[in-house]
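Hi support team,

I've been running sequence recovery on a batch of backbones for a student project. Most finish fine, but this one hangs at about 90% for roughly twenty minutes before it completes. I'm not sure whether the input is malformed or the queue is just slow. I've pasted the structure tokens below so you can try to reproduce it. Let me know if you need the job ID as well.

Thanks,
M.K.
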């Protein structure tokens, strides 16, 4: 590293940004993390994640957080089941011996936050602008403050990044898929039949041009996603989220013809619903290096959630960027090397996620025989959404 301390700002206190801050802290490099949310508990953090050994878990190990991860990892919830609309179980894999344990987003974020020095994260800082200075450094402009200067600004601020426009003109495009998210509380005691239906892990249900995925989260909570291939504005017209009863009724109506035991998943839902249109950047998205600016995670390569690569890719981005920054005498060269390697590394999973999204609710995924289902699921690697917001 250079003799003068490198001034680093990280925009976004999600898993990628916090992992980078932790890794650099371990290496003796302090950062500032700016987050638009006012606190860690401002909103629910989304569903369960399966952290992969070669990416998400690797980043936590490098960060010295492996033991902490084991305390929150749910190895018992790695199962996967596939049903058709009649409620027939087509495939079941209840193996709990794999190495992709589930972890709730809230627990992962708490682990990372607790590992950072007090004052690292600046809450309630919604970025308005990254302003270049004449000397090549940058100021950050927020609603109520201006912070800086910073030598390196890392955009870890998600799909709609405010940092990305400094290096790329691209914006995420709608995939054609919209998820309606819902949740079921205390499922083991209040809805034992649904608990048995889902088992330890996740289920997928396809039939009649409709699709549903339900994941087991911690604390006996189920999180579900009803999936539709529709125009982007359709869900806002179809579902009145101001009335939970109306939203439940609309979901039941959309899945008319499915087994009543499956429709009970909607009837048992709590009052919190969300409409989540799925967007993605082009496969192979990249940019020309600009000194002092870089991206990681969804800001760099948001992809469809099929396959669960999003958070794993973000945490591996953080691990690789930290490794280059701490191992190079020239931090600008370190960033260039990180970007080149990252562009190559994410191309394949982004392509697979795009293919899975393109075939979801297409003719190849509807009303298949058991043998066809098995081949189809192998082709899609049992794709499982990992939806952040």
């Amino acid at each position: 590293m250079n003799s003068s301390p490198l001034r680093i700002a990280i925009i976004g206190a999600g898993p990628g940004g916090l992992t980078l801050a932790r890794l650099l802290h371990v290496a003796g490099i302090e950062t500032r993390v700016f987050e638009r949310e006012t606190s860690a508990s401002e909103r629910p953090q989304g569903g369960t994640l399966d952290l992969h050994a070669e990416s998400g878990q690797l980043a936590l190990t490098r960060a010295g957080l492996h033991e902490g991860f084991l305390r929150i990892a749910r190895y018992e919830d790695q199962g996967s089941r596939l049903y058709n609309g009649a409620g027939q179980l087509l495939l079941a894999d209840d193996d709990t011996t794999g190495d992709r344990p589930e972890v709730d987003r809230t627990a992962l974020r708490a682990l990372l936050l607790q590992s950072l020095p007090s004052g690292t994260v600046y809450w309630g800082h919604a970025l308005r602008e990254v302003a270049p200075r004449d000397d090549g450094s940058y100021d950050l402009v927020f609603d109520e403050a201006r912070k800086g200067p910073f030598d390196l600004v890392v955009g870890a601020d998600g799909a709609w990044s405010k940092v990305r426009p400094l290096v790329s003109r691209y914006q995420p495009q709608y995939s054609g898929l919209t998820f309606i998210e819902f949740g079921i509380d205390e499922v083991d005691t209040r809805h034992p039949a649904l608990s048995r239906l889902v088992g330890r892990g996740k289920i997928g249900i396809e039939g009649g041009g409709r699709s549903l995925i339900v994941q087991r989260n911690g604390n006996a909570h189920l999180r579900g996603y009803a999936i539709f291939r529709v125009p982007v504005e359709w869900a806002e017209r179809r579902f009145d989220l101001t009335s939970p009863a109306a939203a439940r009724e609309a979901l039941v109506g959309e899945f008319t013809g499915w087994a009543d035991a499956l429709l009970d998943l909607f009837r048992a839902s709590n009052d919190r619903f969300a409409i989540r249109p799925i967007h993605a950047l082009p496969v192979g998205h990249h940019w020309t290096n600009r000194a002092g600016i870089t991206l990681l995670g969804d800001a760099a390569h948001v992809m469809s959630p099929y396959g669960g690569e999003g958070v794993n890719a973000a945490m591996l981005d953080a691990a690789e960027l930290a490794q280059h920054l701490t191992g190079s005498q020239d931090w600008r060269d370190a960033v260039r090397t990180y970007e080149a390697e990252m562009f190559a590394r994410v191309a394949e999973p982004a392509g697979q996620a795009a293919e899975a999204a393109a075939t979801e609710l297409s003719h190849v995924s509807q009303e298949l025989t058991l043998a066809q289902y098995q081949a189809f699921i192998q082709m899609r690697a049992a794709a499982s959404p990992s939806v952040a917001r």
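--
Follow-up from support: It reproduced on our side and the slowdown came from queue contention, not your input. Residues 331-359 form the longest helix (29 residues). No action needed from you.
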